[in-house]
Amino acid sequence: MPSSPTTQRRCRRFFGAAILMLGLIHSGGPALSAEAEYLPICNLPKCLNPQVTTKSGIGTANATAEARISPDDAAKWCAAYKPRDKYCAKEQVQSGWIGFRPLYRASADCLAGRLNGIDGGNYSYVGVWGDGPGKGRPRFRAKGDAKDLQWEGSGATVDHTGTFLSWGGGSANLATQWDVLCAGAPAPAAH
Which UniProt keyword terms apply here (predicted)? Predict the structure, then answer.
């Protein structure tokens, strides 16, 4: 029995979507530009993170960076996670993904070891992780209300001083924000 043009179109769409999904599964999700820098919201493969758009004072006592969800990253993310939503990319750029803001700001005093993260929290540099997946990366203590934050729903744990006890949760995000802001600066004294 010959198939109708409508059935043929449906088959082409189905197989096209299947090929796209297989390509994304094989590649591990939407790719982020290798040359771009990000101020990450989260570090899971499904995350859509804001890309750095402006930086100043990098490595100094007045380091600042701003980031936004890029249209290209949003288009790749939407192709993987919301392929039928034709407004997805525009909405993600405007809303800033789960952060619900189009612009993210972070700043640091790289010399004194203070970080103001994109989450609005204030953190103190306390050295580097000695072992595990974060070995050698910057480690932080949360100040004030930031001690109560639960990063990415993963339940990052902090001790009574606010020092992060495990690499999971927001530790990787804070380390990456520090790396963007304090690139080339000598490590500050641990607090």
Answer: Signal
Which tokens hold the place of 5? Answer: 């043009």
**Every domain of the chain and the residues it spans:** 1-30, 51-181
Q: Which helix (H) or strand (E) holds 107?
A: strand 104-109
39 within 8 A of 65, measured Cβ to Cβ: yes
d(CA 171, CA 173): 5
CB-CB contact of 105 with 64 (8 Å): yes
Whole-angstrom distance, CA of residue 138 vs CA of residue 159: 17
- The distance of Cα 18 from the centroid of its chain, to the nearest Å, equals 27
Q: What is the C-alpha separation between 158 and 145, in angstroms, rounded?
A: 12
Question: Distance between CA 61 and CA 111 in Å, rounded?
Answer: 6
Tell me which residue has tokens 């288009």. 75
Distance CA 48, CA 92 (A): 9
Asked if 177 contacts 117 with a C-beta cutoff of 8 angstroms, the reply is: yes
53-110 pLDDT tens trace = 999 999 999 999 999 999 999 999 999 999 999 999 999 999 988 878 899 999 999 9
- Collect contacts of 44-47 with beta carbons under 8 A, ≥24 apart: 44/152, 46/81, 47/97
